[in-house]
Design brief:
Length: 407
């Protein structure tokens, strides 16, 4: 009751109440900002990992030198390994894609129709009936970003130029062939939507002069985080003169950068909560100074030092707990509607707030981690509690005689 009366300042004590209000707002904004930023970083990592692993596989089996022959036999042995979900032989090659006067470098992936149909990340985004025609030698499936860049419509044509083509007496000539676009795909990652083309495996082998071989076999496992433990079994099943490359090695630098940015942002934004907690310290010290006569009277009436300390602990923690809960609600609500908010702000300002060519994703993701949010809330409450200790201790140590000497 006493703590509540002290927080409801009178007119002559309104400055202390304003400090408490700013402390509450600071803690709320700090907690909300930390939850939002951590959730966006988590969502960015999850969505990026989902799109990358959805197309590249968790482990890639390759020959130590050159191409991988007898790939069907190798794929059969890999499927028998416990924990393997899907095995996909592929042919990857870099070509120049051109349409009219526009051209760009792309990656062509040769894949069987049945294997592409088992990949929901791509198969679910294709035009109805497109896969039924994905066994001809003149068809391709193009990423939507690439199609927009080259202005290639569905049922249109695109010309591919491979640097290594036919060997002639005058040297190696580029291989040029025009393909019919039967469908577009969009996985939400511009890294693939703007740079990938799918081609039937048999045609890719012929186009890149692979013969009866592939560039590698993509292996999908049940638990992507446990794929490193499966490497010995996969290498044994693949046979000699092969190597297994996990996704961590292929994308390690990229995800390390994301993790470093995430840790740095957490550290920087935690300072907002720390500054707000320091405001609580200053506000409580001023409150103790202003209420010194009241504290002295309470002590003479029989209030113990512990009781006086609890009064100011409750007053400070009320600001901290209210600000933390307000920040928690604000942060979670913002994350739940972050894409709608982004679109609204982008429409109002006319400025792109999340460029997919820079961040690779078509929409701003946010994945709320309950453990992280709990950690942020606990950290805010602990900082608030620590901030109230010194002013409360000063109030409890106040000498009633000295406080009332000049009253």
């Amino acid at each position: 009751m006493i703590a509540a009366r002290y927080l409801r300042a009178k007119r002559q004590e309104s400055f202390i109440s304003v400090i408490s209000l700013f402390s509450l707002i600071g803690i709320a904004l700090g907690v909300a900002t930390l939850i939002i930023v951590m959730s966006v970083m988590n969502g960015f990592k999850v969505e990026l990992l989902k799109s990358i692993l959805g197309l590249s596989g968790h482990v890639t089996i390759q020959a130590e030198i050159g191409t991988l022959p007898n790939y069907d036999a190798v794929a059969g042995r890999l499927r028998a390994v416990p924990g393997v979900v899907r095995v996909t032989p592929v042919v990857d090659g870099q070509v120049m894609a051109t349409k009219d006067n526009a051209n760009t470098g792309v990656v062509v992936r040769g894949i069987r129709r049945e294997d592409l149909a088992k990949n929901p990340l791509v198969a679910d985004k294709l035009r109805a009936g497109a896969l039924t025609h994905f066994d001809r030698d003149d068809v391709v499936i193009v990423g939507s970003g690439l199609a927009n860049k080259l202005r290639v419509p569905v049922d249109g044509e695109i010309t591919l130029i491979a640097p290594k083509g036919n060997v002639t007496p005058f040297g190696t000539t580029p291989r040029v062939k025009t393909y019919h676009v039967i469908s577009l795909f969009r996985v939400g990652n511009t890294l693939y939507d703007s740079n990938y083309i799918f081609m039937p495996l048999s045609e890719a082998q012929l186009y890149f002069n692979y013969g009866d071989a592939v560039s590698g076999i993509e292996v999908m496992v049940a638990d992507p985080d446990a794929n490193l433990a499966m490497l010995p079994a996969l290498i044994k099943a693949a046979g000699p003169q092969t190597r297994a490359v996990p996704w961590q090695n292929i994308n390690s630098a990229f995800f390390e950068v994301v993790q470093v940015e995430r840790n740095v942002m957490f550290l920087i934004l935690s300072l907002i909560i720390l500054v707000a907690a320091l405001n609580i310290v200053s506000g409580l010290i001023m409150l103790v100074k202003d209420k010194s006569p009241d504290i002295a009277i309470l002590r003479t009436m029989g209030a113990t030092r512990g009781a006086v300390m609890r009064v100011f602990l409750i007053a400070g923690m009320s600001v901290g707990v209210t600000g933390t809960l307000l920040g928690f609600v604000l942060g979670v609500a913002f994350c739940a509607n972050i894409e709608t908010i982004r679109q609204g702000l982008q429409h109002l300002t006319g400025t792109p707030l999340f460029d997919d060519t820079v961040y690779f994703l078509a929409r701003m993701p946010a994945t709320v981690d309950p453990m992280e949010v709990t950690g942020v809330v606990i950290m805010a409450l602990v900082l608030t509690f620590l901030a109230t200790l010194y002013p409360s201790w000063r109030a409890a140590r106040l000498d009633p005689v000295e406080a009332l000497r000049y009253e």
